[in-house]
Amino acid sequence: MRSKLLVWLSLPLLSLWFAGAVVAFFMAINFTNVAYDRALFDSARSLAEQVRVVDGRTVLGLPSSVVRLLLSDESDIVYFQVVGRDGRLVSGEADLPRPPAGGRIGKPILHDGKLRGEKLRIASLYVIPLGGANGSAVLVQVAETLNKRHVLAEEILTGMLAPQLALIALALLIVWFGVGRGLGPLQKVRHEIASRSHRDLSPLAESNSPEEVQTLIHAINELMGRLDQALGAQQRFIADAAHQFRTPLAGLKAQTDLALRQTDPVQQRHALEQLSASAGRTVRLINQMLALARVEPGADKSLELQVLELDALARESAMEWVPQALKKEIDLGYEGPGEAVSIRGEALRLRMLLDNLIDNALRYCPGGSSVTVKVGVEAGGAVLVVEDSGPGIPPEEQDKVFQRFYRVLGSEAEGSGLGLAIVQEIVHLHGAQVEIATPAAGRGTEVRVKFPRF
């Protein structure tokens, strides 16, 4: 994070520095040209003052060697040229480039040129020499190479850009240490989490941390709390499952040993029938546990709610359980509103919900009882009710039966204690509500599932 922040800060700063360098370069070139052009023009004017007309001829009042000595420079090569009014060379360098056309007398002309492949800066001046007639102007030029101009421009550029670059580096260094100090609390949190055991889900200390970090720590603590609850529930589920499997597996082992000891075919058949019944109960317990695992939150993220007709689904489920009801001599019926009742849900899980409710009612009701599956519409949404006339559930235990492996004391029917836990998970997945009550007749059990308004 600190490296990324440093990169994002350095890119615009360096871009600005580069743009400033370009501007500073042109400013330095302009400054050096202005300074040295003035000196170059002064040399041209001084040289022009030495030009005279003697006996009709234009002459330079100083020898060329003296002029070169006066114009000598430590850094650059200096050239001069004096051209008469007739265009003939009076003195100096013959190949020096001429100025652009249109020059006026007494007005300096500054221009660039080349001599033998080397760039020059040239100051040109048209003057009327001493003793000359009007209109008899001569051209005086002084030129120099660009070495000292480049040196001065580089010195100005370096003097401007080096401090800026140093300030940028200092700013980035300060940001580096500042961000590192600011991230100190996060590093502390990282170290504390890394040093913990995978079993330690206790909350992190939120005190002595910046407000922004406290928000992060609070979110981590909430996540740890949820993980602790989920892992606790998982551990309890595993412990309960191990306890529930211990009894049927021990029974299977005992019945298997008994069947092996029997020599009488009748007794042996009876022992095998008991063994088959125990195996069936164990298989049902395993299936119920697998069903519960599939409907737990987060176990399956493929839940896709679709528009379903709850009345048709409930009627079909009730019809499938009719043979089982007839076997136990229980009157299983269905009551609907006579019109379609639509909800948003998943057919497979709703079918599982109905199967568990009807199975529970048939399992715990004695022969001669009645079980009724009802579908209706109330204010706020659709309602599914499974009502039976069985022994019922005491009011103080009606909330407990949704716990895993919980069974009402005194119940003689065989069961896993997972049916209503599965129902509750499916209800939660659909955003619905489930409650247990005693029917108006005062006997039996009424399980009511209320779905949200469609």
Automatic annotation (TrEMBL):
Claim: DNA repair is one of the keywords in the record: no
Subcellular location: Membrane
GO annotation, cellular component aspect: plasma membrane
Keywords: Kinase, Membrane, Phosphoprotein, Transferase, Transmembrane, Transmembrane helix, Two-component regulatory system
EC number of this enzyme: 2.7.13.3
Segments crossing the lipid bilayer: 156-179
EC category: transferase
UniProt xrefs under Pfam families: 2CSK_N, HATPase_c, HisKA
Main location: membrane
Catalytically driven reaction(s): ATP + protein L-histidine = ADP + protein N-phospho-L-histidine
Every HAMP domain range: 180-232
UniProt entry tagged with the keyword Endoplasmic reticulum: no
InterPro entries tied to this protein: 2CSK_N, HAMP_dom, HATPase_C_sf, HATPase_dom, His_kinase_dom, HisK_dim/P_dom, HisK_dim/P_sf, Sig_transdc_His_kin-like_C
Residue span(s) of domain Histidine kinase: 240-454
UniProt GO MF annotations: phosphorelay sensor kinase activity
CDD domains, per database record: HisKA
UniProt name for this protein: histidine kinase
UniProt source species: Sulfurimicrobium lacus
Lineage, broadest ranks: Bacteria, Pseudomonadati, Pseudomonadota, Betaproteobacteria, Nitrosomonadales
